[in-house]
Please model this.
Amino acid sequence: MSILVTGGAGFIGTNFIRSWVEGSEERLINLDKLTYAGNSANLADLRVNRYELIQGDIGDFNLVLATLKKHRPRAVINFAAESHVDRSIDSPHEFIQTNVLGTFHLLEALRAYLGDLSREAWPSFRFLHVSTDEVYGSLEPGEPAFCEKTPYAPNSPYSASKAASDHFVRAYHHTYGLPVLTTNCSNNYGPYQYPEKLIPLMIFKGLNYQPLPVYGDGQQIRDWLHVEDHVKALGLVLEKGQVGETYNIGGRSEKTNLEVVTTICDLLDELAPNPQKGSRRELISHVTDRLGHDRRYAVNSDRITQELGFKPEYDFTYGLRETVNWYLKNQPWVESIQNK
Model:
């Protein structure tokens, strides 16, 4: 038995693979294009008899189909995506190419692979598509959190491309009968995150006493989910989720961006002090807001809690301290990313 993970050398994929290999005897195959955000070194210490990396693109139909036929996985988990909103504003083409067309070609390869199997084998197979809460758009203060029935209203090229991929996954289930599952998660944080995202970026810059840019007034609100809670939830969905359904995964930790940045400053002052240079809070600068910046995301994860028993274990204050500590203790990884 084996499972196939796409995009497993990125942040969430890395944490999922490390958790899975630690807790399962199944062989895991990781198909990853190894773009700027993919780092094969994240998983270099895993036992080769249980883990295999294949460098390739989910948009390569022939490669994906050959990989499926060779390894005959019981499940495919799709993490492969371009995911940084700022990059999607500067270069939307790449997001359409990977998130929309890549997902389409992946689904086509799955359809061809399953078509060669007996129909009796389909119920035991699963395709888990990992998506984002950003497909739902933006909330005003006091509005109810996003649930699985919230209409899609993407506001950035990134979220629009993920919304399109979600719709294709749904369509392939209803049209062709593919046994699919979809998850929409809130903002993740934790080890191995590429430093273009808010938390690792502020840790890296704060360590080096560089300016800490905060968009607009910094009052944009996000629901923060520790990546270890996220990967546990994904395991539950894969094993117990109802085929064709969507599950929202949230951390129940709504914070403003400015709250997050000031907390990181205080943690760095405590854990990596430099009294001669003063408090990191003095490094915070407010810069022109991002185009189309969503004001608030909040995720209602009652369904996955009630149906599958998921409950986030990480309190944000504790989780953020552990995250800052991880980056401080893994300076060689930090330096390799900076050099890359």
